[in-house]
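Reopening this one. Same input as before:
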Amino acid sequence: MRFDLIDLRLFLHVADSASITHGAERAHLALASASARIRGMEEALGVDLLKRGRRGVALTPAGQCLLDHARIVTQQVEAMRGDLGAFARGLAGSVRVLSNTAALSEHLPRSLAAFLKANPTISVDLEERESASIAEAIAAGTADIGIATDTAMPATVRTYPFREDRLVLVAPRHDPLSARRRVRLHEVIDRPLVGLPPHSALQRHLAGHAARLGRAMQIRVRVGSFDEVCRMVETGVGMAIVPEAAAKRCRRTMAIALVGISEPWALRRLVICTRASGRLPAPADRLLQHLLQVDRGRA
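Same output, byte for byte:
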């Protein structure tokens, strides 16, 4: 058996995305090359690693075994790379960070910018995901640091308090609902709404709560950022549900009103999460300490 790190990292990406195509994209390989590498691994082992279907792939028992070992090997390599980088010209390496929509849009940009400026040899691979998916990836070791809601965290990850994230309804100032202090989701779900793209973690979160009411959100238009969402609301296109931090920022320059949401899921506590076992590579630990220090500075 002759597996290299490219093979193992490719296999991790394929298993994480349940797709050879998406795994190849994440590994920056052509699909044909990725398929050939997976086949080569199966031929070398003499067993199938994946069950292939029309909707993607699933791991065989042998594939699950390889996945467990591949995670350990790649984690050790990243730790080695980070530690050795400390002896070079400052720390060097890449940190993989997963974040939900609110943290990615409102809380991380300034902190990450300061970190990257202070650490020119470290790069950050930042990806948006839903909180449950973030917890799974961190526990599995396929990412270094996650920022997600505390309710999604299993015992297999270590958490640190980060921010409080409250969702609010944004309405045009002339709308009768703008005079209300609080509303419930069922009161607005049939109204025209402005949303983010369907793949957005926040949009999937809201769609899930609408589905629990047996309803679908009436999305009139989807735009790419909270600023664009609030601008659409200001012009009367519809209403929207966004993080309070984004809504307050936009209210400074836009004619919009903020209304509280009387639902337990509207108040979310964001946490930083890392693997519960094992230490982080040096670059990832430096980013973690930076984020914790920034948060303590806000207290």
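So the earlier flakiness isn't reproducible anymore. For the record, The chain has two domains: 5-83, 92-299.
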